[in-house]
Amino acid sequence: STMEETDREAVATAVQRVAGMLQRPDQLDKVEQYRRREARKKASVEARLKVQFNKPECCQVMSITLNLTGNEELRKNHLHITFREVAGNHLIYIESKLCCKIFKSGLSHHQTQSVCFFFFFAFLSVPEIVRETQDLIERGELLQAHRKLMDLECSRDNLMYEQYRMDSKNTHDMNLIHTYFGDMQKLSEELAKQLWMVVQRSLVTVRRDPTLLVSVVRIIEREEKIDRRMLDRKKQTGFIPPGRPKKWKEKMFNILERTVSTRIEGTQADTRESDKMWLVRHLEIIRKYVLDDLLVAKTLLDQCFPTHYDIFNKLLNMYHQALSTRMQELAAEDLEANEIVSLLTWVLNTYKSTEMMGNSELSPEVDVNSLNPLISQNVVDQLLSKYMSTLTSNIIGWLRKALETDKKDWIKETEPEADQDGYYQTTLPAIVFQMFEQNLQVAAQINEDLKTKVLLLCLQQMNSFLTRYKDEAQLYKEEHLKNRQYPQCYVQYMIAVINNCQTFKESIISLKRKYLKIEMEDTLSSSHTSMDATLDIIAKEGCSSLLDEVFMDLEPHLNELMTKKWLMGSNAVGTICVTVEDYFNDFAKIKKPYKKTMTIEAHRRVVVEYIRAIMLKRISFKNAEERKEGAERMIKEAEQFRFLFKKLAAGSGEDTEGLCDIIEAIAEVIKLTDPSLLYLEVSTLVSKYPDIRDDHIAALLTVRGDASRDMKQTIIETLDQGPSQPNPNYVPIFKEITVPTLTVPKLLK
């Protein structure tokens, strides 16, 4: 029988073993020593067998094991079997290999292996190995712990496999084995937990303790091999042990992915409420962390993993994906204009720059040209659109505020500041263009296209702003006219407004030169022309309002001209000249192009007002003596004006001669002593100044005081046929001068 055969084999093996111990004569002296050693071994094994065999689950699993043998005789007697009966006193000498022969009869190789392994390993050692493995895990000796865990799993899996082969439907027995090895599952989970902790901190671990990381990778590789083996066996037999495949490599990559995401998300330390620069800080921390991590991954981490893991590229993709997710989250927030710029600058420029992915130390593994965009073009366009709309409202707001602030200065009791050349100015152009400049520099960080759009926006808003500026300057003038004592420094601030027009012009040109490509010049030409025109109007109206100031002060003195008082020696023109010169001391603070215009215009208006005084017919000379005296006074006063305006126009290259010549030409008509030559003198005047109308000639002849109505009529009618020979530079002056018509009482005569 099988029992007898087993006994015989056991005895034979024992004999062989004893023979092996007694090869040489000197070994006979040690027989007693050998006997005591083997007795101790035997006692130890028996004690352990007794403990294990008395456990109920052990008896149940033993029952399963014997059932697996398929041997009828064993199945009948299995409840009465003890190990002593099976192996007798020789059991202690049976080697693992020999053990397989105990159930040799009728068993396959796998079955006998499972049974023997289980007897001598599982029954006797499972709890002890579990304890040892637990200790190893706690001590951080992960490789050794895993080796023991693999042994435990191997014995359980083989036993289950034999059970499956014998009776695949017997779930009760299968569960029994599973339960017996229950602690082993917890060990696997505990070990995995330790591995994932190392994986989570892999970028730190690789610097401090690379060996630990290598051990973790080796464990994962072992598990991958076992997974493959088990899956192959499943294909062939349909059996796979519980918990397989473990997929620890896949889990490791999942853990790495979560770690990377958490690392990116965790860099936001502040909110807008706590720090206006929260986003800039957040993005800078991300940049620093990602670059540091990837450099470590490339130089150190890559060496701890097998090449087929492609660990650096996998990590690179994880970081890219995590960054893409984070940037999309940020893009979806309600960002302010400056935050949109910070985000887009980072996403479109910083990310691929040498400060980050384009860092030379990451090359050639990282090719910035092959990196996908962090956010889609659609999202970029939405952000840019939102930025432009926010910026538009901001610029409108800033410009309005800047103008309001400037207007407050206009009513100050102190003069405006002057630039380095002594010209009055306010801070408005500097504030406006500094704001434009800042926004253009910001836009330039993102791309050329946005920079151009922002420049167009700035100039478009500037256009509207200048119209408001013009209206405000007009209101300023109107308010002043209600009470000329207020504001105290009206003239000086109006000069500053005029000068600002020149500064605005120069700043627009400078801004275009700096930020606009030459090929885009045409798109702005019409808006530029429009702005220049508005600025010229503001400056012209400003100059005009200042001259109004002058002539309001001159009015009482102009009213004295061509009166009896004037003829008797009034100093009206002397006062006029002093007043004009006094005003022009302030007007010296007007910038050159406008100051030249002012001087020409003042000169012209003085002459116009003088001629107007003649045409008002306030005096009619009684005789040749009065005519001579009046004419000479007119010539003398023309010379005073000429001298004054030559002085005021010094260095401007302006021709001031012609205007005063008109006064002298009129004086010659008045001075003429021979009435028969009057037609000739008048016709010379008309040919020089063809805009003289009939009513002007009639008024002039009235002032002369010696021409009859018929003579006036004849001269006027004859003149109509005469040719005109005006000076080509002559600017019509008489058309501005109206002659008063007859009063009602004269009509009644």
Layout of SSEs?
Blueprint: H1 2-21, H2 31-54, H3 56-69, H4 72-77, H5 83-87, H6 96-99, H7 109-138, H8 142-166, H9 171-180, H10 182-200, H11 202-208, H12 210-237, H13 248-265, H14 278-304, H15 311-332, H16 337-348, H17 377-410, H18 428-446, H19 448-482, H20 490-515, H21 521-558, H22 564-567, H23 572-587, H24 592-615, H25 624-648, H26 657-671, H27 678-688, H28 694-704, H29 709-719, H30 744-748
Helix pairs in contact: 3-7, 3-9, 7-8, 7-10, 8-9, 8-10, 10-13, 11-12, 11-14, 13-15, 14-15, 16-17, 16-18, 17-18, 17-19, 18-19, 18-20, 19-20, 19-21, 20-21, 21-23, 21-24, 23-25, 24-25, 24-26, 25-26, 26-27, 26-28
Quick recap of the structure?
The exocyst complex is composed of EXOC1, EXOC2, EXOC3, EXOC4, EXOC5, EXOC6, EXOC7 and EXOC8. Interacts with EXOC3L1. Interacts with BIRC6/bruce. Interacts with MYRIP. Interacts with SLC6A9. Pfam families: Sec6. The protein contains 30 helices and no strands.
What is the tally of helical segments?
30
The N- and C-terminal alpha carbons lie at a distance of 172 Å
Query: How does the overall form come out from the CA principal axes?
Result: rod-shaped
Uncertain stretches of 5 or more adjacent residues: 52-105, 744-749
User: Rg from C-alpha positions?
Assistant: 56 Å
Helix content: over 70%
Secondary-structure content class = mainly alpha
List keywords for this structure.
Exocyst complex component 3, SNARE binding, 749 residues, acetylation, 30 helices, transport, mainly alpha, rod-shaped
